[in-house]
């Protein structure tokens, strides 16, 4: 477990390097990430490579005990490349080039882009393979889908479809193109989604999204092959951007050694409570991508801002607290962005730890304290992992499908996941967040938010988990479609109807209209959607209290083998989820942490012998947490009272006896 | 009078046809509309026609006594056509093609589009001319203006102008192009409205809109000629979309046998009261297009939704009630959209009567009841028509002119018509809504909302009607311009000043600022616009109560021949219109229906011997209507109390003695 | 001092000219501006000039004692020019032409545009050089930046950069292009800002804005050269549009004889108080451009409106009052827009003094009264000027830099200037508003709002002014960057730190979050930004009352030589500025006018012997002003009480004894 810094030697006069390196060393920084936007400096003109300046920088920092992660610079094709090989630039739906500006001005399927990317990466790999200071690589920067409609993309899309479907008849049949005369009689008629209207056949659009992900994965793989060949002892990672995301991170990260996350929790006082919860979800999602610990490759060290207005500066304690949140939820290394704010360029006001003034200040002092703490506790954290008996399912395909076809005003797939995850976090129940494609056996509680696209394999796997003892929670808009984004012609929830023991007789997309349900003799508001349920073998457990469906069934439970399936026919308010999940968790034998104040989170990292409990007040208010007994703080061996008063952004870490959550 | 269904055989496995046909027959459906988006199935590749599947479908349904309307599929040019003949695609103001997506991707002036449309329509016409199950045709689908700036459109626009104006000097003079150096020295300099700014010479823009309508009309006429030639015994119609509309429906429908309307009243609880009123206006407008009864070619049978979020599901009674509203206001056949929701394509969630589940449910039961009722009452309705002594004028030209030049914040031509029509409907006074071009003689009360463009012919005709006894109501922004969208250089209301006996001394575009007027010793709020009036031969009847024009005249009445002309100088709140129209109607000898609760409507269909009164509660609330005496319900021969309690969406139809409204 | 009218002879039938001229003469109009959009009438086809109609018009008006300003018509290239020489049209960031519509459809660097502009201007200059009725010229109309990305613009931009920077290495270094691989290896790689993202290197963007200004200035200079050569006895001016503005008006007006302003104060009742203050700033800015009196070339005479909805009609007294406001703040001639509303074209509803009705009305009567007053007082005003001892600095560069990089939600450079200027105006303290580049010596109080870009020369000049006795007020975001838009690597306020005796330890971009400061034992709210200050040699004078920086310094004062420097670390509410400026002004020996009601303004024009005090109630309410003694009205020699009651839009002008403000 170590502390690092994003550093851009090319932004600073050489005379500053030595001083920066020394100050880092004194502060406790042992790693820097470099070069990930430096293509124009590494290859100023075509084929003329200049790595000398980077060598010098690495030597300088190595002298101070600082190791190096090199970012491949392919996110920023230089001007000579763009000018001489215009196929590099992506074309929008009206075939307009996306010219250079805020990075990412490249088509992943462009032959020139691929060729020159491979060349620069190979040169770098060969040059740094045996540099003792270099420990690993970051490929590119924050991949995302970047719509392109160039001829290369069109050709590759057609090939991709041919590989997947074979005949054109098969595509017509699977996509249901007969609607609105969309049938193709020849592959050449298929194009990427061109302009005019965003609203096209949803099966086609979903496949296009998958193709886009595959284009990014392929582009990354070209680099990964080179790096693995020439630098077998180096790790290779990529720094993902946040959620929600159209690009399928599960596919993207499959071949990487580990995942890195760029993490910028909101500093806004208005989000002082919610941003900690959103962050917890992001971190759990990141840990779930490869089901292992991860790195933070960038995180907040000052007010972000750029072309958009600046955010608030991080409140005292904020930088430290959110760093500990990362560790608590599975981060093993923290690289802060960035050492010092850039004096020029479009990102001048995305602040570093040190301001343009070059005078280390309040935030720097806080960071230094953090480094000291991490150094002290790192040996204990070694080999520990987050453990969870509950899991929430997540899918980029579902997200994309809902984006294409918003079901109803106010319904957002990812927001619903956030609400459910927040309920877990408020209850102090650790939860994994995993791809639907994962093996889910072993989990006691599985929450599956809106399995809109549902193929029989997933349905079977979930049914199997239930039969073996799991509790499964289903929600509206489950089983609507098959994986091709075509509706099942059968009652909802489609392939899970039998497992749930219930069918949907009718539904009402209520959107933001106010409605309530009754569950365990209490009323809860609900919104977005109302499935009016007909229990088959299931038991009703909640009922609607409004509208023409007053008294009809709103939720059911169905016992199946050793487990049970809940079907929630609507989206209730968060209080319901808290009560319902507490109940379901208790029935499943999961412990919760009673009485956590709003905004205070816990997390547990454990190895075979020890469990470390993190208590984190991620708010601007003093808060009191009621513990089950006294503990000793790992920071300073202080005694911690049962009634623990936590200052704003205070953190405590204690040893938790095994068998006693 | 019959019940029909929109049905897409090509969306379903053939094995389902028989079952669907049988269920329709059992339910009371005797008509289907088919094929209107099936070009790619009817002509899978250029010149290869395949009608066998449609023949089979028609035979199957005919076996169950179901007749067929065929839609020509020209709204959805297939991919082979788009790919091989790219002139099919319309070009926007920056010459970007509008690629296929949500239908309508075609330029009406494209030679290829016209050629291949004629071919497919001719093939269809020849093939189905003598098919006994086929009764008529729907041309294309929901025509609208679709901006195109291709070379063909440019050439035709120039020809159109040459036909209308002759010399280029004449255009310069009529349009007043001298302003801002817009004079043309050659026809080649005139183009369709290209990009840069939407704000151009308004005379030019209005003529361009007229040209656009004529392009659609011409495109339709090509098909109409073919259908009338080959299928002389079939009717030909078109299904118009809703209002307001830039395309001139009056011109569009001139040569059709009758008009069809696609009618989707809002299911939103927030619009539970207003949507019935908007619908009444839409139906009256539709009836007015050809001054005769019409068809509903599509109407709601489940929650609409598609790319946009879904609406609420229709409340119990909603589908039935709005079906009866259509009949009450002049529909003779109702075709519901659609039998079953599409499993694929962009319109998956525009629900049919049967859900994807394929299990007929609550809505289906309601529809079945409706079919039974219609079957029972159809013989009585035969040959009946809606009668009215009041008329509201409407014009697409006015609408377009106001769209180009919004006069003031909050003023909307069509919204003002809605408000006036709602006042009539609340009073239970039937009103026609007609084109300004119609012969208006015979009406006792004529309301002319904002005759912005006013040519002397219309002014003379209105004056003649007044002299013969009609009451005419004028409103602000009347007589501002001639038909070329050029301002009259004379006091407002221009050519109607003499008839109104009043001139506008000055005006203040008050927008949303709060003002009041006093009329008959009562204050009413007003907004949008204040004409400060100078009565010439007219009498003042209302006065402003605010601002620097306090005490000045806000409205006048002028006796002219046997009639009179009211000039309202502002747009008062709806309560004013209710009071004012009640008053004007009484003076004109028109009966109103006192005490109608909000949202409850009446309508009367009559033939020479009998009048049928429809009472419709188009709200979610129970409401009580006070009748003048007891009646018997035509549905079940029940006695109806004078104090009639109507459940949500309840309908009653009774016989009304002649000479006793 | 004279009254004029914008008149378009080409819009009216010749038969109307004589009558119009006569009515103008009777009313007191002695000047018209003509021809500024009449290119298509002056040169109907290429090379065929027709000035006969204009000659006739000028003769007609001259006969009635009316002189003429000719506008060059280059704002509206005619259709033949656009069609034959398409390089005239500007291309947007996606290279789409901006087609004709609302004027200004021309690229300033287009060779054809320049060539044909020079030709028409030369023809006009030669033709009218010796016409006795013609007194001067207006070049083009309301210049603004009009983004163009054509090849000519690209070439000129590169030349412009080469002239400024020489080598490509120099550009890379000055702009800091190394960030995100933006380095150029060849000039050919530099383009104008093409599409994809607006967010690019800010140094590059700022230079591009400067280049755009220079393109306009160069285009204007071509005309200026011709006019000065052929018409040495005529003045040449340009009518600028309002503020804020990206185009640098200081550069634009450098070579003109005087500046003209187009001034349209808002008629909205909601802005009834604020629009007078905004107008005062606009007028002060205009007077400051060349530090001399100016013309109003267009101003309101009826409700504006056009493609946008119409404004309210000017309230009685409004036209007169705002005309006097112009004179009070330095206007020497007023030309009202326009004589009569246009009957055709896109600007039909931008009303003239006379409506389309052609019946002079209330507004006309008010204008006639105004003409009488001006005629009476003109001799007194001759040679008088506005005098001020306070100055607010303004810069188009700063404005542009902040536009590119909004610092924080709610912070707007120009709005902050408005607030400060309003405080001065409420206090009745006259203030100049000048370019930062001006010599500021002699001012007692200098307010410098956010000198974001701060080069050492400006810092030195300000420091010098202070040492010589001035009071300087600085505000947040001062000294952030050098003139190349690159951040200083030194503590804020950068080059002014020493003069201010303070450094910024840290800042918090608080945006719209509520905070307060304490100054002179009173709390004031503040927003946008909080600099947490470390006084070096300065004294703290205000402190924060919230957040983690409670009790820290919010403002300081530093004595330097004979003067002092205030540094305000945040943007307080307007009340603070009023109190603070009153205090600072008093300390600097500036008199204020105590007790002015909100919306009532004063201004003073003076010559060596006499001072004229203007009292202006620019609101819709009656207001009472407390004077120091009785005066006599210059309008009618009435006695004016010490407690002066002013009706809505009332104006008084009195002689103010020297040495007694």
Automatic annotation (TrEMBL), chains A, B, C:
In this protein, the active site sits at: 142, 298
What's its top-level EC category?
Answer: hydrolase
Name the Enzyme Commission number(s) assigned to this protein.
3.2.1.23
GO terms in the biological process aspect are: galactose metabolic process
Sorted keywords for this record are:
Glycosidase, Hydrolase, Metal-binding, Zinc
Gene Ontology cellular-component terms for this entry are: beta-galactosidase complex
Query: In what residue span(s) does the Beta-galactosidase C-terminal domain sit?
Result: 599-655
Q: Where does Zn(2+) bind?
A: 107, 148, 150, 153
Q: Which GO terms describe its molecular function?
A: beta-galactosidase activity; metal ion binding
Under the heading Pfam families, the entry gives: Glyco_hydro_42 (PF02449), Glyco_hydro_42C (PF08533), Glyco_hydro_42M (PF08532)
Which ranges carry the Glycoside hydrolase family 42 N-terminal domain?
6-377
Domain Beta-galactosidase trimerisation as annotated: residue spans: 390-590
UniProt KW Metal-binding keyword = yes
The UniProt annotation places substrate binding at 103, 141, 307
Reactions this protein catalyses: Hydrolysis of terminal non-reducing beta-D-galactose residues in beta-D-galactosides
Q: Which residue ranges run through the membrane?
A: none
Report the family membership. Answer: Belongs to the glycosyl hydrolase 42 family.
Name of the protein in its database record: Beta-galactosidase
